[in-house]
Design a protein that fits this description.
This protein has 20 helices and 42 strands.
Length: about 800
């Protein structure tokens, strides 16, 4: 949010320089993220002066150019070649002298005026059009100024160009009370009063407001008071829509707003002055002289100010006339009811809308406006009429209008001040320092928080509704502390510590251990949102946790897996030319079991949360090249075996023996080909190639390999794992190879399990070191080359013993798996 230094000084008298004021605002809870010097016109029109055209003749070598002599207040007039069709002798014009830098309208890049020869004629400057000076968008011809303007004077003085300092404030959601110049000034005044300096908040007076006639009554009705607790409006007639005066344009430009016309500019001015959004409707376009606040049927088309047709939802609050919608309430205006140069009468709206309704609508339509920003966080319901009067008086002054109706104010259930009780003991406990109760009362009074009752123990306070986040004792303490000063709270020099028992294994320590392992191997950690899109789930999946009052369809479900978030990170990086990725993530996944919905305790009480559960998961994601190509190696594409090696590294680091888990192949809507390690309590890890259909949903055009661990089960297994140290064997181990012809559907895991089942005592390891499938062997077959490590802990193995074991293993493979031994 941008706040103007000059503008603030209209509401509070202070002499702090901008840097000091920025420090004060940050200390009072309005964090200043940047301070910038600005000019209402970029460059400040330095080098531009007021000139008078003394002579104007046609250019001898160009029909569309003129050669002029211009008095710019110096000893001699200057010659300027001008291409504008409206240049004429005797005109008072803005002249950019040699060396001046101009910033045309809508351009960040400036250009410098130089001496030039144009078609053979010397030119020492430029007579300027409106857009060339950055004062507007018109390029119809040069600007012709008032004949009484002083020749030779600075154009910056003539156009009232101002210099200002603008604060960029990072407004937190709980400080919507500071979303205006009055709101910021209120905090400045409170701080000054606490420092013992005289200060008073100067709010503009609206005492002059009065109805001029009854020429334009508009009937207003609110059909959805829940979405619109208060709706105020008034009509004005006899308006002259035109360009705003310089002071108003300068104020809006200083905070990054582009002036439009006097009526619209006034609504924007009041928004940034008071924090109350307003909207002006062309009264001639209001059918039936009726304004109706209501929702419309799902799918109703509506064209907004940006000329886009949007399909309304049944929850979108609309401002309608007798026939159609005119505006998406609190969010965006309609194309057919806005103020134009032909407008002569308006209906001016000032309302308080429910934040939830506005937030849903803004998110659904992806519209983020200054109005929706404030309504989403909560506006002051008691500000609507005051803001309406302020805007109406400005319109009478600047647009020549008449107030042509009484103020319509529909406010069926007035919002009362919040009542909060605080104790001095708790204030001291939370702050860490005892503050004089009189000081506390003065601070709160400066923040418009009234003391209803006070005794030696505490206070009963009345908090105005515009402080939407101040409803608890802790909130009051925060308000006191930010004015009192966080830096005024002393810090004790000694440190207290407590002895804590940490349950073993330490979950956080193990997460960090595995994170270090993966990061050391080139992986990057990601964090994705627990809220995810409903499009990632089958509509019939009853195990998905749904969000009530979701902000959007993209954030309407709780994730059941880390895979969608990982794939979002993958495509995000791929789209930014980062196709080679090694990522990992730790996070919770959420589940619901509808079957537990009706379970009750022995006392007959229902358990509404019993059906919900969550698990801690770890995800790994690989895609692109596993190794980077360089002068010694070629880039190696990620494969299933790269992923498996990482999975085995993780399990091995935690001391978990994969051979003690059930292993099986799986394929589903997430994985095309994958392996799963499981125990009796459930799946421990799944890893494999991500299904191409799922990749297509994310627009990923390269293979992705992913693994997901149930970290809760991993922790259980780690807790039971034991590390046993053994001496090196006294007797040598023996390695033997075996080549087998097998059906294609036989897996290595079956061979491995069968080998261990056949020889339990001296067989120590089985490995697959070669696979062949091709035209040199029978169709539907494949060749596996296996190695076997044999070791007897008590003696040296003989060839006879070794051959006997190998024959038994080969025979078992032939019998159980239909293998054909090709050699040994």
């Amino acid at each position: 949010m941008k706040v103007s230094y000059n503008w603030l000084r209209e509401y509070a008298d202070f002499d702090m320089d901008p840097v000091e004021l920025g420090r004060i605002l940050t200390n009072t809870g309005l964090e200043v993220e940047g301070i910038e010097e600005v000019e209402t016109v970029k460059g400040g029109l330095e080098g531009v002066v007021i000139g008078k055209v003394l002579t104007c003749t046609g250019h001898p070598n160009a029909d569309k150019l003129s050669v002029t002599t211009v008095d710019i207040g110096e000893d001699e007039p200057v010659q300027i070649v001008c291409g504008a069709p409206n240049v004429a002798e005797g005109q008072i014009v803005p002249v950019a002298t040699v060396g001046a830098t101009l910033y045309p309208h809508g351009s960040e890049e400036g250009f410098t005026i130089k001496k030039a020869k144009i078609r053979g004629e010397a030119s020492f400057g430029m007579i300027c059009a409106e857009d060339e000076l950055g004062l507007g968008s018109s390029h119809d011809g040069i600007m012709v100024l008032d004949e009484h303007a002083q020749v030779g004077s600075r154009a910056a003085d003539y156009f009232k160009i101002e210099k200002d300092v603008v604060f960029e404030i990072g407004l937190t959601p709980n400080r919507i009370d500071g979303a205006s110049h009055i709101g910021v000034a209120r905090d400045i005044v409170a701080w000054m009063l606490h420092q013992g300096q005289p200060a008073q908040l100067k709010k503009p007076s609206v005492a002059a407001f009065q109805q001029d006639n009854h020429a334009l009554p508009i009937e207003v009705s609110v059909e959805n008071p829940e979405a619109c607790p208060r709706y105020s409006g008034v009509t004005l007639t006899g308006l002259h829509v035109k360009e705003s005066p310089a002071w108003l344009q300068n104020k809006l430009r200083s905070i990054g707003q582009e002036p439009i016309n006097n009526v619209v500019d006034i609504t924007n001015f009041v928004l940034h002055e008071l924090g109350q959004p307003l909207h002006a409707f062309d009264a001639a376009k209001i059918s039936g002289n009726q304004v109706v606040v209501k929702t419309m049927p799902e799918g109703t088309p509506f064209i907004t100010l940006d000329e886009k047709e949007r399909k309304l939802t049944a929850g979108d609050l609309m401002i309608c006339d007798a026939r159609d919608g005119m505006c998406i309430g609190g969010v965006f205006g309609g194309a057919g009811s806005g103020v134009t140069e032909d407008t002569t009468s308006i209906f001016l709206e000032s309302a308080c809308f429910d934040p939830v309704f506005i937030r849903k609508t803004a998110k659904h339509h992806q519209l983020n406006t200054d109005a929706s920003f404030r309504f989403e966080r909560g506006t002051d319901p008691n500000m609507t009429v005051y803001a309406l009067k302020r805007a109406a008086l400005l319109m009478k002054e600047l647009a020549g209008g008449k107030i042509s109706s009484e103020i319509t104010d529909i406010y069926p259930e007035p919002v009362e001040d919040f009542t909060v009780e605080v104790t001095f003991r708790n204030i001291a406990r939370l702050i860490g320092k005892t503050i004089d109760p009189d000081v506390i009362a003065r601070i709160l009074a400066s923040l418009d928080i009234r003391t209803e009752k006070r005794d030696e123990k505490g206070m009963t306070l009345r908090v105005p509704p515009y402080r939407v986040d101040v409803k608890r004792e802790a909130d009051i303490v925060e308000e006191i502390l930010r004015i009192y000063g966080y830096n005024n709270i002393p810090f004790d020099e000694h440190v207290n510590s407590t002895l804590a028992y940490v349950e073993k294994p330490d979950k956080e320590k193990l997460v960090n251990t595995i994170s270090d392992l993966l990061s050391a191997n080139g992986f990057l950690e990601i964090k994705s949102n627990s809220l995810t899109s409903e499009s990632y789930f089958d509509q019939e999946d009853l195990g998905v946790v749904k969000i009530q009052n979701a902000l959007s369809q993209d954030l309407s479900r709780m994730r059941k897996s880390l895979l969608p978030g990982g794939l979002e990170a993958v495509i995000y990086n791929i789209n930014r030319k980062r196709p080679d990725l090694k990522l990992y993530e730790f996070g919770n996944c959420y589940f619901v079991d509808p079957a537990k919905n009706d379970q009750r305790s022995q006392q007959g009480y229902a358990h509404p949360l019993k059906k919900y559960s969550e698990e801690h998961h770890m995800g790994i994601f690989l895609t692109g090249h596993y190794t980077t190509e360089n002068w010694t190696t070629t880039g190696e594409q990620v494969s299933f075996y790269h992923l498996k090696s990482v999975v085995m590294q993780v399990l091995g680091k935690l001391g978990i023996d994969s051979s003690k888990m059930k292993m099986e192949e799986i394929s589903n809507d997430q994985y095309a080909q994958a392996m799963e390690y499981s125990i009796e309590k459930g799946s421990v890890a799944r890893f494999g190639k991500v299904n191409s259909t799922l990749l297509k949903q994310f627009d990923i055009k390269q293979d992705v390999y992913a693994a997901e661990f149930n970290w809760d089960l991993v922790m259980r297994m780690h807790k039971k794992a034991t590390t046993v140290f053994q001496p090196l064997p006294r007797f040598p181990e023996v390695k033997r190879d075996l080549s087998l012809m097998l059906d294609k559907n036989v897996k290595f895991g079956q061979l491995e399990a069968l080998a261990y089942q056949t020889e339990r005592r001296i067989l120590k390891a089985v490995d697959l070191f070669d696979v062949y499938e091709g035209d040199k062997i029978e169709k539907g077959k494949k060749s596996y080359a296996l190695s076997f490590i044999l070791l007897d802990e008590e003696k040296t193995l003989t060839d006879k013993q070794i051959d006997k074991v190998m024959r038994r293993i080969a025979a078992a493979c032939e019998k159980e798996l239909g293998a054909v031994v090709r050699g040994s």
